[in-house]
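Appendix C reproduces, verbatim, an entry submitted by the partner laboratory led by Prof. M.T., so that reviewers can inspect both the input and the predicted structure.
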Amino acid sequence: HKAAGLKLERAKIVAFGSTSRSSNPQDDANLAALLEANTPVVSIFGKSWLMHVEEALKISPEENLERIFTSVQYLKARGKEVIYDAEHFFDGYRHDAGYALKTLEAAFTAGADALVLCDTNGGSIPGQVEEAVSAVRSRLNAEIGIHAHNDGELAVANTLQAVAAGCRHVQGTINGYGERCGNANLCSVIPNLQLKMGFSCIPEKNLKQVAGVSHFVSELANQVHANTQPFTGRSAFAHKGGVHVSAVMKNPATYEHITPETIGNSRRVLVSDLSGRSNIRYKAEELDIDLKARPQKAGAIVEKLKEMEHGGYAFEAAEASLDLLIRRTIDEWTDPFSLKGFRILIEKNEHDQTRSEATIRVDVNGVTEHTAGESTGPVHALDIAMRKALTKFFPDIGRMHLSDYKVRVLNGDQGTRAKVRVLIESSCEGRSWSTVGVSENIMEASRQALMESYAWFLKEHQSHYTTTNQKVS
């Protein structure tokens, strides 16, 4: 009922169900519910595979054809646009092509507006899809559709092949979400069809919204958006190797199959032990750091980067730490505070309650500040202690907060002595940044990442704080 009240310009709400389970569609509760939904379009699925007809429905092949025909006819007679989904069509076609085609003929003769060929088990390959679609097109002058599942990781490929063979109705989901391994990902299908195969799927100006919609749906579904998702992932247009980056800087087409901005994404250059000077120059420019006047510094930055990554640091997901590393190396930034020492105490009482206490000493402009913080967890206690020490000199730190905390074991073969990498994401008024720390001691790695986060925040507000540890009035 709520859906009926939506004011949609380009979309239509569709009610979905099966063909009649009764020989008389007027007596079928499922069809009655579809009509009660009061949608302009109804989609019903029916059996195309004889194995399902005989073993799942346990009816004769002729009765199945009759149910398909009468169900479609019943809905059409009541003014509905009807989409007929031929369930397991490709498996049924390979088992008995003649019967599978008869099921489509039954729906078409009854007035179905579209006949959708479903790869329900997701096991077909593009050649099989093309063969079946071509056979349907040669037999029926109908609107043909494709509904592909991704169990063989071919849902997008099968969809594109089906369209090339004549399908003009495409079913899929944003990000490929769906049962088992998912459905055809429309965020890949649309740009492939429109940018590479010459089809018009959506208004050209709307292509730039593809990446945004992809991330929005992930957020709504409470799913982590895959960095490696084609077209829309953060890594879809990310470049790491120095040779790649050097070429991309000269001509992006050397290592990019489309311009990322076309679908609302953007190019990213990563830095790691594979990086060359091209990566550093590109990243520095992206971070608004001028290396042109000191080109010799690029080599020093690369060496420092490789040294740190060899020790377990990773800057691909910690760009704030990378920013600080570059600026420190070229003497463009000095942290306005330094650590003198810290201590963590963790205790558990007889009531099974845990308590953590952190004490820290930091130096700011020659003044040592000694503070303590208490919480249930040690990282939060350390964060509280640090904030107490630093906000006395830098009040703006009180505006930022920790928004995510991740720990990764780097050398698991060392057991509890393993080195860990801590990634911390901090936020302030809608802006977020990530920093990294590495140590065999998880609290030291956390301390590093926390202090990096404060340092980057102060760097961003250096109009208020100088790099000589003096507060500007």
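Residues 464 and 472 are 6 Å apart (CA to CA). Additional entries are available on request from the coordinating office.
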